[in-house]
Amino acid sequence: MVTPILVAAPSPALAAPAEGTIVLSASEQPETERPTLDRLKRSAARRDITLEEAVDGYLTEQAEEAASAMADRPDGPVDTPDVMIDDLPAAELEDLTSLAEDEGIGFAEAIERHGWQSDFTAAAEELEASFPAEFSGAVRAEDGSRAWFGFKDEVPEQAVKLAERLPVEVELVGGRGFSEAELAAAQNRTHDAVYRHPDVTDAITAYEIETGEIVVEAELDEQATTQAAQDAAIAEITPPRTLSGRFPVDMRIVGDATAEPEDRYIRGGGLLQTCTAGFNLRHTRTGTKRIATAGHCGRSKAKRNYDNHSRDGGSTTVTRVWWHKGTWGDIAYYSRGGKTATRTFYHDWNSKRYVDRRGGRPPKGTKVCKFGMASGKSCATVRYRRANGSTVRNMVITDTAGSAPGDSGGPWYYGGTAYGVHFGKIKTQGDTAMRASFTPIRQFEHRNYRVWKR
C-alpha cells in the first residue's frame, strides 16, 4: 500500500511573484527557417516518396559530393556523414527519425517539435554555468511546445537574450527563492536521513524542479506490514524541516523501491560480455585513453572481453582500472586492451558516429537516445535530471521503461552529444514500471577523465 504524506507546506518563497515572471509568447519568437528541408518536402510530395526517403537521399548525395563530409575522420570512416540540412546535422536527423517512430508521429512533426532542442540545452548549460547561485532549473515540454527557466532572484538579462532565440513560448520565472544547487543539497540531506533509518531497507529520492518538491519513496522492512505500522514509520522517518529546509517533501511508503542494475547480456558502444561499453575517455592531463561503462559492471569483473559489432569484427581483453557506485553515480572504466581508442561510438547496431560534444546534465524534457545490446536503440525524455537511489546518486531518470538486462554501461546521447552511460532502472513516485536511468557523462571528470570528442 502506498501512503502519501506532505511533510511540510510549501514555503511562500517557492512561489514566484507575478512581477518576477517573463513570458515570451510563441508568436513573438523567431521562426526557424529551413529552406532545404522545405524543398525536400516538396520534392517528396512530387515524387510520391516519404520525407525520410528524401532526406536520406539528400544526405547520401551530399556526403558523396562534399569533401568536408569525409575529411575530418581522425579515427576512420563512420556511418553518419558530416553533412547538414539547414541547422540540423545528419546525426540529429537520424535520432529524430527514431523519435518519430517512438512517439507515433510523422518525421516532419518530429523535426518541428524537437529540432530546436540543441539550442535549448546549450542555453540551459550556459545559464547554469554563468549563474550557479541563481539558476533554479530548466524544463523543456515533452511535446516540444514550450521552455521554462527558473531563477532564485531576478531573471538575468542574459537569460532573456538566450530565450529570445528559441522558436517556442518561453517562461522565465524569477523570485523562486532557491537555486537548483540548494535544492540538490536538500535532496541529499533528506535521502541520507531516510536511508539511515533502521526501518528502511531501500529508498529513492528525486525532486520536481518546477515545484521545488523533494519526492521520497521508502521501502520498509517486513515488520511494518499494517497501515498503522506504516503510518507510525512515516511519522518517525519523515525528515525534519532542518534537513529539507524550506522545501516540501512528499514521503511515500512503497512495496518496492529498488534501483536495479542491468548487468547481463549487455552491449553499447562495443560488447563487454555482460555489459555495454559507453564512450571512450581521455585523461585531461596525461592523455591516457580508457573505455567507460557502468560501475556495477566494473565491480563484477576485473577483466572483460571486448568485441566490435559484427560488421567491424575484432576483439581484445580489457582490464578494469577503476569503478565507483555511490555519490558520483554508477561508473567505471577499463583499459583499451590491444585496440586503438577512437572518438566514435555505436549509436545502433553496426552504425557508428563521432562524439562532437560533451553534454552536461540534461534538463527535464530533453530528448535523449540510448543503445544497448539487449534492447537496441530507443529514445526517451528526461523526467528527473538529478535523482538518488539507495546506493547511487546524481542519476538521470527518463520516462521510458525501454531497456533490459544487458544494456548497462551503454551510451546515452543525442546527435553527436554524449550524455551518459546506462545504469539500469529506477522506480519513482506513481510509477507502475521502473524507468531507464543513466549516470551523466561528466561524472567521470571527478577522475580527470572526459569523453574523447572530435
From TrEMBL:
Signal peptide: none annotated. InterPro entries: Peptidase_S1_PA, Peptidase_S1_PA_chymotrypsin, TRYPSIN_SER. It comes from the Bacteria. Coiled coil: none annotated. SUPFAM superfamilies: Trypsin-like serine proteases (SSF50494). This is Serine protease. It comes from Nocardiopsis gilva YIM 90087.
